[in-house]
Amino acid sequence: MNVEIYILPALILTLLIYALIKKIPSYTSFAEGAKAALKLCADIFPYIAAVFICVQLFKASGLSRWLSSALAPAFDLMGIPPELCELILIRPFSGNASLALLSEIYKTYGTDSYVARCASTIAGSSDTVFYITAVYFAGTKVKRFRYAIPVALLANLFSAILACLIVRFF
Amino acid sequence: MNKIWTIVSIASIAILLWIDPGNIVAHMNNAAAGTVSLMIRLLPLYAVWMGMMGIAERSGLTEKLARLLRPSIKFLFGEVDERTSRFLSINMSANILGIGSAATPAGISAIACMDKGGEVATDAMIMLTVLNSVGMQLIPSATIISLRQAFDSAAPFDIIIPTLIATVIPLIFSVAAVKILQAKVKR
Domain of A79? Predict the structure, then answer.
């Protein structure tokens, strides 16, 4: 699996060599590209803060735990263990919060338990629906996302069901 | 987005007023502080990848990539202009490779290119949002594998194939769903 660590450096090296062959000013181009990073962070910051504040209140109030136990029977019918409900609820909002939950699951149930392997697969195969939507549209006036969020949430739920099913065979 | 945010916040604050009123504002401040530290962690990553993208752009490499991916971009997003398709191709390639910090700036730029100032998301915008929020990483997440290693897993790599399957099938499902909804729901 060590091949992985060479992928990104190889990519960057190829890019720089290609730029050299094409005789373009790499240093200036890099700086010009990187310059936009600060503005980008400033643009998306308020939207991420809004999402994170909501998630923090959601978790601190115990609402997420309550909602998880309320949804547990429904999730159970779909083959998702109740231990994973909170992870599935938090995952669309924040990558960091779900990694924190993932560590908790590792600690509580053991890294190689069925629940923990399901949790790893769920965290790896889904993404942060609300976070992405907030960040991507931060610079626009778009307010109506039509069917974007329902489809993305359903696909992530489908992915979680699939994950809990497949993990049994590996 | 506005509705969900407001409802979840009101419900949570109402409960907190009951169980722990002293810490409500502290929770909000902590979350904002957490966002600042996330931004501080993201800024250098964005700087590196956006710098690299600057080189790729100037050397004409993104144009080549966009030409290479044109059929799939056309299939997924319909007709988009040259600049948008360049950002879309970077976004998709970076996602597949699992470089989230390169995918995000490219995705934001693609949305900015497609934005005409309207309040309703276009079909192409929705496709991009859905693709990104469903996850299309084909090289499994190093973050999760290293977390498993950190927690002394005996087989940290066991989740790679399940993760791949649980990524690809929902991805196909959601592309199909978006395509069907595009045809059915006319604005």
Answer: 37-169
Percent of chain B with pLDDT over 70: 97
Orientation angle between helical segments B123-134 and B70-77, nearest 10 degrees:
110
Q: ipTM of the predicted structure?
A: 0.87
Tell me, yes or no, whether A137 lies in a domain: yes
Nearest to A18 among B48, B61, B143 (CB): B61
Q: How many CB pairs under 8 A join A and B?
A: 314
How long a stretch of residues is chain A? 170
List, for residues A90-140, the tens digit of each pLDDT value: 999 888 889 889 999 999 999 999 999 999 999 988 889 999 999 999 989
Reported as a pLDDT band with limits 50, 70 and 90, residue B4 is confident
d(CA B171, CA B169): 5
In a domain, A71, yes or no: yes
Task: Choose from B25, B29, B163 for mutation: most chain A CBs within 10 A.
Answer: B163
Contact B108 A40 (CB under 8 A): yes
CB distance B137 to B93 below 8 Å = no
A105 occurs within a structural domain: yes
Query: For residue B121, which residues of chain A lie inside 8 Å, CB to CB?
Result: 137, 142, 144-146, 148
Shortest CA gap A82–chain B (Å): 19
Specify if A121 maps to a domain: yes
Asked if A21 and A116 count as a contact pair (C-beta separation under 8 A), the reply is no
Using a CB-CB cut-off of 8 Å, the residues of chain B touching A145 are: 1, 121, 126, 129
pLDDT at A17 over 90: yes
Under 8 Å between Cβ of B126 and A147 = yes
**Which three-class secondary structure string do you get for A74-97?**
HHHHCCCCHHHHHHHHHCCCCHHH
A14's CB contacts (< 8 A; 6+ apart) are none
Instruction: Spell out where chain B has E strands.
Output: none
Task: Copy the structure tokens of residue B150.
Answer: 């950190």
How far is the alpha carbon of A140 from chain B, nearest alpha carbon, in Å? 7
- Residue partners of A100: CB distance under 8 A and separation at least 6: none
Distance of alpha carbon B80 from alpha carbon B76, whole angstroms:
10
Count of structural domains within chain A:
1
